[in-house]
Specification:
By secondary structure, the protein is α/β, with parallel strands linked by helices. The protein is built from twelve helices and 15 strands. The strands form three sheets. Strands 3, 4, 5, 6, 7, 14 and 15 form a seven-stranded mixed sheet that branches. Strands 10-9-8-11-12-13 form a six-stranded parallel sheet, sandwiched between helices. Strands 1-2 form a two-stranded antiparallel sheet. The longest helix is centred in the middle third of the chain and has 15 residues.
């Protein structure tokens, strides 16, 4: 098969032929029809995750089951499937309670083993981790769900429990942030989008953002407090930097809920967080780490009804070679919307 291969951390990515994968016990091989490119792929390329080299990135995918391993009961050849980026072991107390997204023995395609920037990918513990794609949902839309969209969905529903008419501030409107804007509006909230990229803010407006704020070094929390009459009920850091984390927390009103979605690997130590405000205003700090397969039905139902349209977030579909050139620049690329790869 053809795959995008990373031979060293921070080095060039090469698209080349590698051996076809085999289905492991309890797992499947999926023929990849669409796979999303995400800032997490850039983190892995930059050396912020421990990956074994040579490595194939890619963790947001949809495709068709092309080989079934021993012991798999629920899936057969030809099934259209997607998968959360965190795959649980299926045996621990967290997996058994429907929380595979925090499984201590989790696998992540594109991190713990070769991922989906390839024509085929292996997925483990298929019976607990695979999700059937409804007929009305395209491979492209399904591929956009596994990481950023599902993470935003869980962040606003299960974690922040956003209510109708509340204010939601989304700091950073890349893929996960735009998803949060769309989901926030579908939940009946008022949404403020913040980004340094004016193009991304334009997209946020088309998705229904009530206000947009350009992050140009001015005081973002102060502006949010003005718009909302005392601060946002919920704020999401969808970037993952000390600055965006602080902006999100300081944008909250008293008793507000902050959700940290953007990754904050302690590359230069742990970030400074304004805990004095957290205490004095009784703020909730919530982490959100993907969403288990068990939680997909509610999200898929909203997509089938047309309340959520992940396909509207897709801005471009590119090939593996173009993607290999794009990935190293992805941290600073001012691209609006989601980028998908068709490995064929
Ligand atoms: Zn991702
Ligand atoms: Zn587990």
């Amino acid at each position: 098969m053809r795959a995008m291969v990373m031979d060293r951390v921070g080095g060039p990515l090469e698209v080349r032929e590698v051996p076809d994968p085999q289905a492991p016990v309890g797992g499947v091989v999926v023929r990849v029809h669409a796979t999303g490119m995400c800032r997490s792929d850039w983190h892995a390329w930059a050396g912020h995750d421990d990956v074994a080299l040579p490595h194939v990135p890619g963790h947001e995918l949809a495709g068709v089951v092309s080989a079934v391993g021993e012991g798999v009961k629920k899936w057969s050849l030809g099934d259209r499937v997607t998968v959360p980026f965190v795959c649980g072991c299926g045996r621990c107390e967290w997996c058994l309670s429907g929380n595979a997204q925090i499984c201590p023995d989790q696998e992540q395609p594109g991190f713990t083993h070769w991922g989906s920037f390839a024509q085929y990918v292996v997925l483990h513990a298929a019976d607990i981790n695979l999700v059937a794609i409804p007929d009305s949902v395209s491979f492209e839309a399904a591929a956009s769900l596994g990481c950023r969209f599902a993470t935003a969905f869980r962040a606003l529903t299960e974690r922040a429990r956003v209510c109708v008419d509340e204010w939601v501030t989304v700091v950073g409107v890349g893929g996960v942030g735009l998803s949060a804007v769309m989901i926030g509006k579908a939940l009946g909230a008022n949404v403020i989008a913040v980004d340094r990229n004016a193009g991304a803010l334009e997209v946020a407006k088309t998705l229904g953002a009530d206000h947009v704020l350009i992050a140009d070094g001015s005081d973002i929390p102060e502006k949010v407090h003005e718009f909302t009459g005392g601060g946002s009920h919920v704020a999401v850091d969808a970037v993952g930097s000390e600055q965006t984390c602080q902006d999100s927390i300081l944008s909250l009103r008293r008793r507000g809920r902050h959700v940290q979605v953007g990754l904050l690997p302690p590359v230069n130590g742990h970030p400074r967080v304004p805990m004095s405000r957290v205490i004095a205003w009784e703020l909730d700090l919530l982490g959100s780490h993907g969403m288990a397969a068990a939680a997909y039905p509610l999200m898929l139902a909203m997509i089938e009804r047309g309340d959520l349209r992940p396909q509207d977030l897709i801005e471009r579909v590119i090939g593996l070679t173009e993607a290999a050139e794009l990935l190293p620049t992805f941290d600073n690329a001012s691209l609006a919307g989601m980028t998908l790869i068709d490995p064929w």
